[in-house]
Each structure stands twice: as structure tokens, then as C-alpha cells.
Amino acid sequence: AGGNGKASGGLGFAACFSILVTGCVGCFGTTVMRKYPTPPAMGIFLGIVSVLSMQYLILSAVFAGEAQNASQDDDESEYSNDVAFAVFACFLFIVFFIFSVLLFIYRGHLITIDPLAPGEVYEAPQPSAAAPKVEGNATAYAAPTPADVGGAVTQYSDNTGL
User: Is the alpha carbon torsion for 55, 60, 65, 69 positive or negative?
Assistant: First the structure.
């Protein structure tokens, strides 16, 4: 590439790395959709798939440009490799774009674990009336002893009862 008839090592790295990232996104997506279909996890997955789609659009344009340069240099091997990956990247762009659009449209059906239903408000638990009050600006409550909660008091060897 670059008009000198030699393949670019950076483009080869970009091609291999993008395929590895796609495999990792596939594993992550399987985990999210099977084990953790919560709104934050599905949102993160949707964002990752959308970015991966755009990455393949950019890679298809870059490799198509490199194929054009290789055709001008009469380098058939580099030309065929660049065209093959440009077509493959364009195909992956289309697949991931359609998947991200469908994931966006049907996200309500895919999210099965919703910690809060619509209109539900989380209420923090209130301290019990038996908890002793702490004086001053303290925001914590004193920890109850076993005797306060009806448990047995453990006798130690010094017979202090604590």
C-alpha cells in the first residue's frame, strides 16, 4: 500500500485486531443476552455493536482505497487481498448495522430483568424504632448487641458477659 507495491503491516494488524474484537463482542453479547439482560447491560451492548458497525464501515473504505492504489501499481496479490477484506468489512458493517437497529427497536422485549418497573420508585429502608439514636451530627446508628435482638449472650472466660 502507499503506492510502493508492498502491503502495509498496519492494515494487516487492523484487519486481525478487528476480527479479534468481533469475537470478544460476540462472547460479551452472548453473556449479556443470556445471563444479564438488564437495561444498563443491554445499553452498553447496543453501544458496542453500533461502534463496531461504524468501525467496519471505516475499514471497508480504507481497504477499498488501498485496493485502488494496488490496482494502479499492478500488484494483483495485494489488490485481491484488499478487495476481499473491503467486501468482507462492508458485509460485516451491514450485518452489525441491521443487528444494532433491531436491538434498538426490540430492546423492550429483550430486557427481562428490570430492577424497577415503570413508575416504581426506590425507597430506602427506614431504621427500626428499637435502634438507639446517636447524638450530634452522626448519620450512623450504633450496632445492636445480641441481647438487644433477643439472642443469647455469650459468656467469656472473664465472666464479663460480653
Answer: positive
Q: How many CA atoms lie within 13 A of 57 on its CB side?
A: 11
> Could you identify the residue written with the cell 443470556?
34
What is the residue type of 32?
A: V
Angle at Cα 84 formed by Cα 79 and Cα 90, nearest 5°? 125
- Which pTM value belongs to this model? 0.63
Q: How many Cβ atoms are within 10 Å of 100's Cβ, its own excluded?
A: 20
Measured distance CA(55)–CA(24) in Å, rounded: 15
CA dihedral sign of residues 87, 14, 24, 77: positive
Q: Which of the residues in the chain have pLDDT under 50?
A: 1-3, 5, 156
Rounded Cα distance, 160 and 162, in Å: 6
User: What CA–CA distance (Å, rounded) separates 37 from 53?
Assistant: 21
Q: 82-111 pLDDT, tens per residue?
A: 899 999 999 999 999 999 999 999 988 888
The DSSP-derived string for 50-118 is HHHHHHHHHHHHHHHHHHHHHHHTT-HHHHHHHHHHHHHHHHHHHHHHHHHHHHHHTHHHH----SS-T
Owner of C-alpha cell 471497508: 60
